[in-house]
Design goal:
The complex is a heterodimer of chains A (871) and B (444). Chain A is built from 41 helices and one strand. By secondary structure, chain A is mainly alpha-helical. Chain A starts with a helix and ends with a helix. In chain B, β17 (198-203) and β18 (208-214) form a beta hairpin. The chains are: A mainly alpha (871), B alpha+beta (444).
């Protein structure tokens, strides 16, 4: 009772020794009491969880702790250990099992000091249980696992490495004995755990037993009779085995053995479904003519299994081994037989169960059926191997990348199993990320084609809710776009038109449904394609992908928001899959909005709306993402080009004191500030045609025009070019025309007024240079009101002065301005051209011609020589 | 540790200075480099192409490891190589030949992987894009071209297209002297300088000219501010001009359109520039053999390194994974091995004789770090599950064993009890008998 009073709360350290003692009393059977399996044993997990939650064995040692408490805690842990050790030496196997398991937990939980002082005792105790006289299976398995934990902990102390290697060396023979002589699969699994710890942490200890370990594991794998899990564990050990020697040759040799073994098994399995020449070719790549064949895997040759079963388990385990070899680290550089591995992948992917004509008479339908049933597994593993090759080789895959792309795209066309398609998509994502823009240009068409097909086809999810799926689907869309329109999105009507046909496309091939997981993979792949390759040569596919992603996102969210929290009743059921799908589609949508483009993201307003809704309505994870998306898109609304350092304050200390107060103003001139501000307005209101990029691009050009040092002559053709510009985006994309027409019509009203404002500041600069800073500052605060009165005055002056010299062109230009409502930069340019036109000729023509967004690159007649001379 | 390395066209070796302290490190000997000829290969070692007698038919390329002053590996490519560059992880070395050919070698094996005719005249500079997938080359013929390495290696596609390059920019009229690339992957800008006294800014995504800046003198070197606010152009008149990219430029600039200022130290022509984002320092090499370090913000020289009497023509800033001086003495044996073994020399021709090697690649497998995972508590749960189900043979076996021991123990107990009983009985019988005899004797 007195002690109880001393405890403050559950964090009180004084509680720990007390708890530990009562746990010992409650759960650990004393030596002389028989253990009741049905009761105390089943409470072990809760015992472990209490020990782990409260760190009861950690024996925290710090200055602040009362030394008396340290002592009581220490003695409590001492008791715990002595209790465990007495359990370990019990002749009752169940007690022994309890002791072994808890010792494993202790290895993980106890303090460093305690571990270092007693690990060798524990190791010897545990070792005695995997050696004959054999104990029960569970005891053997538990000892292997506890030993593995002990080694894992031991490996974290580099100072005892030598001792560790020595002790680990003692374990190898007993483990090999377990593998070779025991005939229970579960024990092998335990042995594999221990073997893995040995190879991973103390590779030097294995060195002398290298061949024996190889033989022991190989015999198990080649027999192919056991569960995939056990085989994989053993295979992993085998793949790591070369680390024991750590030199270049043993890695290559092991890899070659794997490849030859796979090849031999395949030759046998594919008899009849592929031409003989294939197997010879593969062989030639593996063992170059004139070189010796290495010993087969495991030393001696093993007989293949009977012919009525395909050696799928063996082949897949061996391929898994190859994957693990490629993706685990190795101390030195290794020689990877890339070509033969890729050839293996290609060979496997080529076989689709069809019979070559020459083979027809030799195959029975039973044989064919057998192969067809096993092929998906083999294909999955060969794709895994391809993934591992890409991971392992990284940049050095470059010389082979074209070959891989061909294999992948060819297989993409035929592959229709969802699981395999998902893998294919992930391969493409890896290629895009690791090879960058260079590959994206060439991979894009295939990705687009496949992803569009997958996304456009009807998914299983629609069927679930409404068997007559096409009806509601078409019905929902117009309704949706109607609502959009109310929100002020003029482009919504286009959405309707474009979306309407898509269900019909789906209708035509309803039989071919795309599972939602495949759609997710397709979305993720499009996302990566956009991040990597959106900037380069994407004109042909960009607009269709943008619209596809928007459509998918809207469709995915139209039935409400999924719940990303896992449902404990249906851990893998559609509730969470649906939310994942939404998550993927929203991510892809965000990328499509953010990715660099030559035009304004056409679905910006819908996207913003969707994210806004998601932020308010969706569950935690989705809402968080929507909030992030809104945050990321803010840059599109308020573009900024920031220098990394405070360059301006250094360079231009004297100028522009006023404009420094405004964030955007610091970095863009007062005039640019105005344009960007206006374009912002345009975007938020209903969206013009320009994107952030275009604005930036225009600023370059406007800078150019502003400058008085350079004499410029803008031919009339160029002006025409410019005036046609508002319609330009429609060249690139016929679809967009429909969208922009209503937008432009609507814009008329606002834009006319804005137009004036834009033209003004540039004249302001000219005529009232001193007030520039002030004027721009005003413009920021109230763009429409602030500058209008002054501006209109000046504007009226400029045409006058200009018209003195250039009557005809002047007239032309102003009519242009009228035509192109809403495109401030054109107005700005027109006015600056007026000024420039007065000044005579120069060679800067190309820069202006560039300003028309889709003019043809390469038509540039600048001559830098004359440039230089004219100065 | 960040160091700055510099070489010259006259043999002054490769100078190496600690960026932080300014202390000179090891000087790597015998190096006379052409402009853009010095590079580090994945920061593992130094490589530099060498100037030779122009009549020589083969090129000359040297490798130095960080720890030794002498060049350790010499290669002799088929023709003189001037610009030399390695990709960021040091797997490939690309060299530009004087005939206009570009060569790609694999570093680990030294194999010449590809060679193609890129320009009509000698290549003057080479740059990799941010993700190493595009290569940008400049030539004496004034042409700047963008290549996708994927395309270069795709033998099938190569035959289907009319030209290999992605873009060819032909606006420069004279020799291209330097090229730099900005931030943003496929959306980056390229800035090129030429002897025609212009610098041109190109868009990589749109594939065309964005801006032309005319300078008062020929620009031999450019460096781009990582924020792409301005770029710096080192000129033959000894000034470093600051030209605007995103920055505002006012019409009143003294030097010309877009040129918003200059850094000047009355030096001889500026031959090379490098920008260190860490601390925002600009390094300029000059024909007087000095390397000046400018603080970009204050536009002052913060430090000067003396390289040699001859003109400095390459400056590279390298981020080393470990300090230079201690690399030999204290490093772990494994990393030492790694560092000391330089790859074989580069091959002269793409020789197909060793076909086996074509099918293989020498790779350093990626290092993966994992937290240790412990299995015991999971095992307990698994086994408990088995025990509860009572179905597994292992459990049955254990139960049997337990029962056997129990049985044994019960038998022993039985024996013991029996013994006790026997003893008791015997005792009682004896007692009784004794009593009887006693009584009998009493009675008697």
């Amino acid at each position: 009772m007195a002690r109880f009073d001393q405890l403050e709360n559950m964090y009180d350290l004084g509680l720990k020794p007390v708890m530990l003692r009562s746990l010992i009393r409650q759960y650990l059977p004393a030596e002389n009491h028989p253990l009741n399996l049905n009761n105390s044993c089943f409470e072990l997990p809760s015992l472990v969880s209490i020990v782990q939650t409260h760190c009861l064995l950690s024996e925290l040692d710090s200055q602040s702790i009362d030394p008396k408490l340290i002592n009581t805690w220490k003695s409590a842990v001492d008791d715990w250990l002595s209790c465990l050790l007495s359990l370990l030496s019990s002749d009752m196997s169940d007690k022994c099992w309890v002791g072994i398991c808890l010792l494993g937990v202790t290895c993980q939980e106890c303090s460093n000091q305690r571990f270092l002082s007693s690990y060798s005792i524990w190791l010897n105790k545990l070792l005695s249980h995997i050696q004959p006289p054999a104990d029960s299976q569970l005891v053997k398995i538990a000892s292997c696992t506890s030993l593995a934990d002990l080694l894992t902990r031991l490996a974290r102390f580099p100072e005892v490495k030598k001792d560790g290697n020595l002790l680990a060396g003692k374990l190898i023979q007993p483990v090999l004995k377990l593998l070779n002589e025991d005939n229970v699969e579960a024990v092998w699994e335990g042995a594999a755990n221990l073997l893995y710890a040995l190879i991973a942490f103390f590779p030097a200890s294995i060195h002398h037993y290298y061949d024996k370990v190889e033989a022991a594991i190989a015999s198990k794998i080649l027999s192919g009779k056991y569960s995939t899990k056990t085989l994989k564990k053993l295979g992993y050990c085998l793949a790591l085995l070369p680390k024991a020697k750590g030199d270049k040759d043993s890695w290559s040799l092991m890899m070659q053995k794997f490849m030859i073994s796979i090849n031999d098994h395949l030759n046998e399995a594919f008899q009849g479904v592929e031409e003989e020449a294939k197997s010879d070719e593969a062989r030639r790549l593996l063992v170059p003519p004139g070189k010796d064949l290495p010993l087969p895997l495991g030393g001696a040759s093993f007989k293949g299994t009977s012919s009525e079963r395909l050696p799928t388990a063996t082949i897949s385990t061996l391929m898994f081994c190859c994957c693990k070899m490629l993706t685990s680290s190795y101390p030195v550089q290794v020689t990877v037989p890339v070509r033969s591995m890729l050839a293996l992948v290609e060979r496997l992917l080529r076989v689709d169960g069809s019979l070559p004509h020459t083979m027809l008479p030799f195959m029975t339908s039973v044989q064919q059926e057998l192969i067809c049933s096993e092929l998906p597994v083999l294909h999955a593993y060969s794709l895994e191997l391809l993934i591992a090759i890409i991971k392992g080789m990284r940049r050095q895959l470059l010389p082979h990348s074209a070959y891989i792309v061909r294999v992948v795209t060819r297989y993409f066309k035929r592959c229709s199993l969802p699981e395999l398609r998902i893998k294919l998509y992930s391969i493409i994502r890896m290629l895009l990320v690791s090879m960058g823009v260079g590959i994206a240009i060439y991979l894009a068409p295939d990705v687009i084609e496949n992803a569009s097909n997958d996304l456009n086809s009807l998914g299983g999810e629609d069927i679930e809710t409404s068997p007559a799926n096409t009806g509601p689907a078409t019905g929902a869309l117009p309704q949706l776009s109607n609502r959009k329109r109310k929100h002020g999105a003029e482009t919504g009507s286009l959405e309707e038109k474009r979306d309407a046909p898509s269900p019909k496309v789906g209708e035509s091939n309803t039989h071919q449904m795309t599972p939602i997981t495949v759609k997710m993979a397709a979305l993720d792949t499009l996302e990566v394609l956009l991040t990597v390759g959106a900037a380069s040569k994407s004109e042909s596919w960009r607009s269709s992908i943008d619209s596809l992603l928007m459509k998918t996102a809207i469709n995915s969210c139209k039935r409400g928001w999924g719940n990303l929290e896992s449902n404990i009743f249906l851990p893998h059921e559609s509730a969470s899959v649906w939310a994942d799908f939404q998550f993927s589609s929203l991510r892809a949508l965000l990328t499509s909005l953010l990715a660099p483009a030559r035009t304004r993201p056409p679905y910006l307003s819908q996207g913003l709306e969707l994210f806004r809704r998601g932020k308010q309505e969706a569950g935690m994870k989705l809402a968080q993402f929507c909030a992030y998306a809104l945050f990321a898109l803010e840059v599109l609304i308020h573009p900024r080009a920031l220098p990394l350092d405070d360059f301006y304050s250094a360079c231009h200390n004297s100028t522009d004191g006023a404009s420094n107060r405004f964030l955007e103003n610091i970095y863009s001139g007062s005039r640019k500030q105005n344009t960007s501000f206006l374009s912002d307005m345009r975007r938020t209101e209903q969206g013009g045609v320009e994107s952030h990029d275009v604005d930036l691009y225009d600023r370059w050009l406007q800078n150019e025009n502003e400058n008085q040092n350079e004499n410029e002559n803008i031919p009339v053709e160029d002006m025409k070019d410019q005036t046609s510009r508002p319609n330009d985006p429609s060249f690139t994309n016929v679809l967009e025309v429909r969208e922009q027409e209503p937008a432009a019509a609507n814009a008329d009203v606002h834009m006319r007024t804005e137009n004036e404002i834009v033209v003004q500041p540039c004249h302001l600069e000219e005529s009232v240079p001193k007030s520039q800073g002030v004027a721009s500052a005003k413009a920021v605060m109230s763009p429409a009101v602030g500058t209008n009165p002054e501006g209109s005055e000046i504007e009226s002056k400029t045409p006058l002065s200009a018209s003195d010299r250039l009557n005809d062109t002047n007239h032309d230009m102003f009519s242009c301005v009228d035509k192109v409502d809403g495109f401030d930069h054109v107005a700005g340019k027109t006015s600056s051209t007026l000024r420039n036109a007065e000044k005579g000729s120069s060679s800067m023509v190309h820069l202006d011609s560039d300003s028309s967004m889709d003019s043809f690159p390469g038509i540039v007649d600048a001559d830098p020589d004359t440039d230089a001379d004219s100065d | 540790m960040n160091v700055v390395i510099a070489s010259s066209s006259i043999d002054g070796g490769i100078g190496c200075w600690d960026l932080q302290t300014g202390a000179e490190q090891l000087r790597y000997k015998t190096c006379a480099s052409p402009p853009h000829g010095l590079t580090t290969v994945g920061c593992r070692f130094l490589a530099c192409s060498q100037l030779r007698d122009p009549s020589a038919t083969s090129g000359h390329l040297l490798y130095w490891s960080w720890s030794k002053p002498q060049a350790q590996v010499k290669s002799f490519p088929a023709e003189p190589i001037k610009p030399l560059i390695a990709n960021s992880d040091g797997t490939y070395i690309v060299g530009g030949g004087s005939s206009g050919d570009i060569y790609i070698w694999e570093v680990a094996t030294g194999r010449l992987l590809k060679k193609w005719h890129a320009h009509y005249r000698a290549i003057t500079c080479l740059v990799f894009s941010e993700d190493d997938s595009l290569l940008i080359s400049g030539s004496e013929d004034g042409c700047v071209r963008v290549w996708s390495l994927f395309m270069i290696f795709d033998d099938v596609r190569r035959q289907q297209v009319s030209h290999l390059y992605e873009y060819s920019f032909t606006e420069h009229t004279l020799r291209v002297t330097d090229i730099v690339i900005g931030y943003g992957g496929g959306n980056a800008i390229i800035v090129s300088a030429s002897e025609d006294r212009t610098c041109k800014v190109w868009s990589l995504s749109k594939g065309r000219l964005l801006r032309n800046v005319v300078f008062p003198s020929i620009i031999d070197a450019i460096a781009i501010d990582p924020g792409e606010h301005v770029f710096y152009a080192g000129s033959r008149d000894g000034k470093i001009y600051i030209a605007a990219l995103n920055a505002e430029s006012s019409p009143s600039d003294n030097y010309g359109l877009h040129i918003i200022g200059s850094l000047t130290d009355q030096s001889k022509p500026v031959t090379c520039l490098a920008y260190s984002a860490e601390g925002n320092l600009l390094f300029s090499g000059s024909e007087d053999g000095m390397i000046r370090v400018w603080d970009v913000k204050t536009q002052n020289i913060t430090r000067m390194f003396r390289h040699s009497k001859g003109p400095v023509n390459n400056i590279v800033i390298v981020r080393l994974p470990y300090p230079l001086g201690r690399a030999e003495s204290k490093s772990q044996p494994s990393s030492r091995k790694h560092e000391l073994s330089l790859p074989p020399p580069l091959e002269k021709y793409a020789n197909s004789s060793d076909e086996d090697m074509d099918n293989k690649a020498i790779v350093m497998l990626p290092d993966t770090i994992d937290l240790p995972s412990y299995l015991s508590s999971q095992l307990i749960n698994d086994h408990i599950k088995q025990l509860q189900q009572q179905g597994s043979s292992a459990v049955a076996e254990m139960e049997a064993k337990r029962l056997k021991v129990d049985c044994q123990r019960s038998k022993e107990m039985f024996q013991q009890l029996r013994k006790v009983y026997d003893n008791l009985q015997e005792f009682c019988v004896n007692e009784l008998l004794d009593e009887q005899t006693m009584e009998g004797s009493k009675g008697n």
